[in-house]
Write a structure and sequence with these properties.
Helix content is about 35%, strand content about 20%. The chain is an alpha/beta fold. The strands form two sheets. An eight-stranded parallel sheet has the order 9-8-7-10-11-14-12-13, sandwiched between helices. Helix 1 crosses helix 11, helix 3 packs across helix 4 and helix 3 packs across helix 11. The radius of gyration is 19 Å and the shape is globular. Bound molecules: nicotinamide-adenine-dinucleotide. Nicotinamide-adenine-dinucleotide (NAD) binds next to helix 3 and helix 4.
């Protein structure tokens, strides 16, 4: 939370360098949307500057075919004085944790105060981290509505959450619609490339954290009271929904309410009324990964943890 907040502040102050991330797709446009390796380099400034890169692979069928998590990756941190590598770290846990922190920070600023219900579509590892973090950070949250095309995944997640947070009531829905309609906060964690959440399903005052990016229909972006992204340039590319709307001449930077860092630093307001429907579209930023990895690296050095390698 601390590291991601810092990354968002530096992003708003433009004290960072973050080249657009290339997607390596071995099967080109014919492959599944979640089959790719993404290179995410960044330099962050501030009092403890650091550079680095996340190299994160994904295959949509890893869980089913190989019994492995969908995503795997490495982070390399570099000392900006010499540009020498200073650490090689596992990335998928850091990546999942920072993504959960983005939703929590988003919910602090963009969800209704004292919200009690969250709906989550897609119940894999990212969903688990999202819900655990929300439940840890928002003690009034009690109602969890889950939906997954694979019902076992939803049942399993519901069971795990009930074990860990006895205060909650976790329900598994038979369809996405009844789950989404219940959520004051809605989090998407699927691997779909087909939008299925229309505007009508969203409650007045809903906050949507659109983690898996492709789930909500285009009209939601056009009818929502506020659309927030993490980084406009990263959101407006790769034929993702916002990019499609821009290419169709229906959406532009002027219609965007803010980048999340501008809200965190108070340059732009967050939620202003209980009625607003607010969509956060977080593509995921390398500055969040590198800031989080650096925080963990500093703690590991202080604790003399890790293995020293010579170059
Ligand atoms: N925005 C970010 O910064 C960020 C960061 C990390 C991961 N992600 C995204 O999070 C998503 C989930 O990742 P994961 O590692 O948990 O994947 P996963 O494969 O472990 O889980 C995905 C789950 O979604 C379910 N599902 C697929 N299509 C569905 C649909 N249409 N409706 C309901 N359920 C559906 C699957 O059955 C599966 O249980 C991915 O799309 C990934 O790209 C985003």
């Amino acid at each position: 939370m601390k590291a991601v907040n810092r990354a968002l502040e530096l992003h708003a102050k433009r004290d960072f360098v973050q080249p657009l991330k290339p997607y390596l797709r071995a099967h080109g446009a014919n492959g599944h949307i979640a089959d790719r390796i993404i290179a995410m380099p960044a330099h962050i400034g501030g009092e403890t500057p650091v550079s680095g890169i996340k190299w994160i692979g994904s295959k949509h069928d890893n869980p089913r075919v190989h019994g492995k998590e969908r995503a795997s990756g490495l982070i390399i941190l570099n000392d900006p004085d010499t540009n020498y590598p200073i650490a090689v770290m596992e990335a998928s846990l850091i990546s999942g944790m920072r993504t959960a922190a983005v939703t929590v920070i988003g919910a602090r600023h963009l969800a209704r105060k004292g919200f009690r219900s969250v709906a989550c579509t897609g119940c894999g590892i990212i969903a688990k981290m999202q819900l655990q973090s929300l439940l840890e950070q928002f003690p009034k949250l009690t109602d969890i509505h889950l939906f997954d095309l694979n019902k076992d995944a939803a049942e399993r997640l519901g069971h795990e959450l009930r074990q860990r947070f006895p205060r909650i009531n976790a329900k598994v829905a038979g369809d996405a619609e009844p789950a989404v309609r219940e959520g004051e906060v809605v989090v998407t964690c699927t691997v779909t490339d087909q939008p299925y959440i229309p505007y009508e399903w969203l409650r007045k005052g809903a906050f949507v954290s659109n983690i898996s990016i492709m789930d909500i229909h285009k009209e939601v972006f056009l009818r929502a009271d506020k659309v927030v992204v993490d980084d406009w340039d990263q959101s407006n590319r790769e034929k993702k929904v916002i990019n499609q709307l821009v290419l169709e001449g229906k959406f532009s930077r002027e219609q965007l309410h803010a980048e999340l860092g501008e809200i965190v630093t108070g340059q732009k307001p967050g939620r202003e009324t209980d009625e607003e429907i607010i969509v956060l579209n977080p593509m995921g930023m390398a500055v969040e990964d590198i800031a989080s990895a650096h925080e963990i690296y500093l703690q590991a050095v202080a604790a003399r943890a890790g293995t020293r390698l010579s170059l």
